[in-house]
Amino acid sequence: MANNTDYLQVLWKVKYSDLALSSTILIIIGGLVGILGNCSVIICYFRIGKCGERYFIPVLAAVDLVACITSSIFYVMDNTFFFNYPYDSMCRILTFLQLLVPGTSASLLIIISVQRYLLVCKPLGSNMTLRWKRIAIGVACLFTFTCSAPVLAISGIKTSNETYQNHTIQITVCKFSTAETSVQNTVYFGFLLLLTIVSILVTISLFIPVLKKIKLTFLGKFRSGRKASKHRNAPHATDSVLTKDKEQKYEGKTTELQIQDKSSSNQSINTSSTMKGDMYINKPVNTFTTEDSERTRKEKATRKITVMFFVIIVAYVSSYIPSLIILILVYAVDDLQNFISVSKDAAFVSTYLARFVFLNHIVNPFIYSYFDPLFRTELKSYLRRQINTGWYRMINKKLSHSWIEKMSKYI
Predict the structure, then answer these.
(1) CA–CA separation, 411 and 404 (whole Å)
(2) Which cell locations does it reside in (predicted)?
(3) pTM, full prediction
(4) How far apart are CA 304 and CA 380, in angstroms?
(5) Residues 159, 170: Cα–Cα separation, whole Å
(6) Contact 387, 323 (CB under 8 A)
(7) d(Cα 263, Cα 324) in Å, to the nearest integer?
(8) What are the pLDDT digits (tens) for 323-365?
(9) DSSP labels for 350-368?
(10) Residue 156 Ramachandran class (φ > 0 left, ψ -120 to 50 alpha, else beta)
(11) Which uninterrupted H or E stretch holds 168?
(12) How far apart are CA 411 and CA 406, in angstroms?
């Protein structure tokens, strides 16, 4: 038993101690950043009230918040008890949540893609109402829960005897599936893999026409803006010609006035008013109404929110693909399933890439703060209010404390 413990410690120190330490530090930092960021998103959008096109943002932030908490616990537990995982029930629950929460996030992004597609590409058609948004969220959560539920039965801790440096050591690890390879497990894992690939492809395919529409709209407005600027800059020559014509008309009419009887004051007044009317015939009229301004403002807001969701989807796809590749390799290459024979470098690369999906739940608050000025303004206001309140409480506490000390001298 002593030899078993000694060689298990040797294996830990040689191959996995550095990996566990670095990964744990990064996971804790990322988890804290993600928790603070997603909490700020939920608080700010709750204070904003009616979110409109931003309806899915606080929902997605709530899912990311749960993911930051559960994933941090799962990864830290896995790093701490890499070869001697203590609790079977905790392994099952955390593994289930590792599948449920990211799956819910992916389902929400599909719903967001559908909503943006209907809003941008089919503006005259039927868009998602508040009722349908809620129904879609409920269906997505129920579907993801149904797909993830079997993990509660097949996951858990598994104890096995392995050989390291010609010595037999006993390890206990938390695994996605404790059973040996079977037809049922293979079908289930294949279904999950296919579902992940399909969700990524559907999300991308729905957003491609949205981006094309936004690009065409932007180019159309850019070209019309260039034409308008050319029209404003070009008429200098024609303006000078019109001015000369008006001066000639003015001179002619002045000559006629000199020939006519100077006593007819009413006639001269009418003639001068006619001349002023000629001077303002070609003056441009501003037809840009407040309704046009409001419509332009809404179009810009829609375009900006759509680009923001596109960046979120790019972050989602970029974080899921490395994890998906590692998942395929782990089940396709037998050597990667063996924690003992795999090299230290391979363990580093495979572990970090497998956990790359964790970044998806951390970066979204930064994307919101960059693209959404409403959230940025509310966040600044909230932080300023909290800082001012904190300073006020601290000063008030100090003043009250000094007042108590002064009063105690007289008691």
Answers:
(1) 11
(2) Cell membrane
(3) 0.73
(4) 20
(5) 7
(6) no
(7) 98
(8) 888 877 776 665 565 667 777 888 888 888 888 889 989 999 9
(9) HHHHHTGGGGHHHHHHHHH
(10) left
(11) strand 167-175
(12) 9
